[in-house]
Amino acid sequence: MIPKRFRPAAIAALTVALASGSMLAYSASAGTGPEAADRATSEAFARIADDVLSERTQALVEDQPGRRQAGQTPAKTRMSAQLKKDEEAAISSLRSRKTRLADLGEAYTGADTRVAVDRATVTGGKATVEVTEQTTLTYKKLRGDEPETTDFRTRYELKLTSKRGGGWELTSIKSRDTGPVAINEPVATKGKVVKDDGNQYPDGTPASTKYPAPAKPKAKTGGAYDYAAMAKYAEKHWSNYNPAYRKFNGAGGDCTNFISQALKAGGWKAVPGSTSDYRNWWYDGTRQSDSWVGANEWAWFTLSNQRAANLANVYQTDVGDILQLDFNKDGSKDHSMMVTYRSSAGMPYLTYHSTNTYRKSLASLIASYPDAVYFAYRT
């Protein structure tokens, strides 16, 4: 997404006694100002986050004999009553998503979720913790040529409260990313629908999400653009950002900036001019056109300059093609992604920024957002 238009001292008072394998005690004499958590405290917070996020991930993995299924036994992490209720609902939602994925011919045989603490502070008996989750899911070979894995990296903020007698209680866990939810993350409540402003732009035609779709293949190389080079660029930089470009990971997100880089790597030429005119598309190191970073502006540029045409069905997208989503049907596009792999059975796999994701199947997107409006572009 992108705009529509566009060490601090250790905590001496924290004792490092762990409870229930992932908790630690907190001294009543702690100061009232924010303090950076020491290493042992941060590691304990990482275990708490890992416990919750791994539980979510396992809700998506194919059941295997002898392995505990998500939600079968209470999680180690102590939670507030409301958060416990919310997490139970999240696990139920993810199980339903697993069923929808199975109906679309997709399953996962294994998963690896790891969590690192980016920042942790404690004020009195309250803690705020920012973490990054790195998860790899292994595709089950149902059709034979699925990718080996899908990977994503997403960021969360946790809130915790110290409890009398020792330990921490998790009261909140919220994503800090702005793109589509990670495959192991429940979909947030729908936001307010924005009224159409009445302005006329080349918005394009929504695509059907019915599977399967009539094939519409294209040559990956040898034409005006090198689609294989686009995919190679995206898969190289999905997690390790290219330092030659600025990041736009704030409120707007980096998704359209990322696909613009990949399209340029495959041969798209700049169109110079003012930054605000959507008919222009360029990046010069210090500035860029709105169409380089804005989801709506990119679509307007692309269609008005005939760089791409809309496809009738999302499953017709091939390597180097672009998919955009309008999550809440308010007439404004929210997110941009590139297809970097397509199976022989006709399943596109997408790579994108915000949330940073590698080879996520189109099926998993539709399973998460069945009511969104989708726009598919043949580049």
Please describe the structure with a list of short key phrases separated by commas or semicolons.
379 residues; alpha+beta; two-stranded antiparallel sheet; 13 strands; 25% strand; disordered N terminus; signal; Amidase_6; Putative amidase domain-containing protein
Could you give a short description of this structure?
It comes from Streptomyces xanthophaeus. Helix content is 23%, strand content 25%. The protein has helices at residues 39-58, 81-103, 227-237, 255-265, 290-293, 295-304, 362-368, and strands at 14-19, 23-26, 35-36, 108-123, 126-139, 149-162, 168-175, 309-310, 322-326, 335-342, 348-352, 356-361, 373-378.
Strand content: 25-35%
The number of helices is 7
Low-confidence stretches: 1-31
Q: What is the distance, rounded to the nearest whole angstrom, between the alpha carbons of the first and last residues? A: 19 Å
Would you report the number of β strands? 13
Query: What is the residue-averaged pLDDT?
Result: 86
Radius of gyration, Cα only, in angstroms? 22 Å
Sheet with the most strands?
11 strands, antiparallel
Order of helices and strands: EEEHHEEEEHHHHEEEEEHE
Helix content: 10-25%
InterPro entries: Amidase_6
Domain Putative amidase: 225-374
Pfam families: Amidase_6
Region (Disordered): 62-86, 195-216
